[in-house]
Amino acid sequence: MSLVQVEQVTKRFRKGDQEIVPLKNCNLTIEAREFVSLMGASGSGKSTLLNLIAGIDRPTAGRIVVAETDIGQLSRTQLAHWRARHVGYIFQMHNLIPVLTAYENIELPLLLLGLSGSERRRRTDIALEAVDLTDRSNHYPRQLSGGQEQRVGIARAIVANPTIVVADEPTGDLDAETSEQILELLQQLNTELGMTILMVTHDAKAAERAGRQFRLVQGELVRYGEGAGVST
Predict the structure, then answer these.
(1) 194, 165 contact by CB (below 8 A)
(2) What are the pLDDT digits (tens) for 15-45?
(3) Which of 19, 97, 16, 9 lies closest to 51 in space, CA to CA?
(4) At CA 197, angle to CA 46 and CA 27, rounded to 5?
(5) Staple 190 to which of 9, 35, 196, 228, CB 3.0 to 4.6 Å?
């Protein structure tokens, strides 16, 4: 069974008297250890699909199964616990807490899992090393460059060893050189650590880093290429 199964998913929103349908009968499967990218025009439903797979939102119709769990059947409380254990989210704008150090920002998701202090330290140290920021662990976000902030965000996303990492425009706020470094890091996490990654991007060059590439066109998912990531 595939790690992620999106089956006939439709999402509708109401905006005043207007009905918006960003996703229409969408189907997608993602295997463990895959790196998949998703492109589309602004408002095409890319982030909507990402948030549905991450359990942040619910589909209007259809179902989503992640690691054999039909997440549409979970209560709000169950879904919050499920997200904490299974989903790592990388944001475009980092979303770091300014009064916490890099180390404390990365450790934060582990506080929800009831781990011992020594286990939290072990996992946080591993995540810092994975993103090459061990020497910045005690720095606050204001003391870091944009690329370093995004590395902290990536470390925070992977620290709990999630089932899937979802990345929403992870290079959208970075210059070309830093973007390249972040993409190389994501690819490394995929190829060397075997992390399953779904990345939304507007950048065709970034999308090519993925093993499979999809585009959302008028609410429907279209496969359009294969890239350099792990593909099964």
Answers:
(1) no
(2) 888 898 999 999 999 999 999 999 987 777 8
(3) 9
(4) 50
(5) 35
Residue 195 sits at the vertex; the CA angle it makes with 192 and 197, to the nearest 5 degrees, is 125
The two three-digit tokens of residue 203, written as one number: 């950048």
Q: What's the length of the chain? A: 232
- Look up residue 229 and give its amino acid: G
pTM over 0.85: yes
- Alpha helix (H) ranges present in the chain? 46-53, 76-86, 102-107, 117-130, 146-158, 176-193, 204-207
Angstrom distance (rounded) from CA 138 to CA 102 = 6
Residues whose CB is less than 8 angstroms from the CB of residue 172 and which lie 6 or more positions away in sequence, other chains included: 92, 201, 202, 203
CA distances from 109 to 83, 88, 95 (A): 10, 9, 13
Joined together, the tokens standing for residue 150 give 């995004």
- Beta strand 87-90 with 69-70 is unpaired
Q: How far apart are CA 207 and CA 199, in angstroms?
A: 8
CATH node for 33-55+76-226: 3.40.50.300
d(CA 95, CA 152): 10
Q: What is the pLDDT of residues 168-223, one digit of tens each?
A: 999 988 889 999 999 999 999 999 999 999 999 988 999 999 999 999 887 888 88
> From CA 56, how far away is CA 52, in angstroms rounded?
6
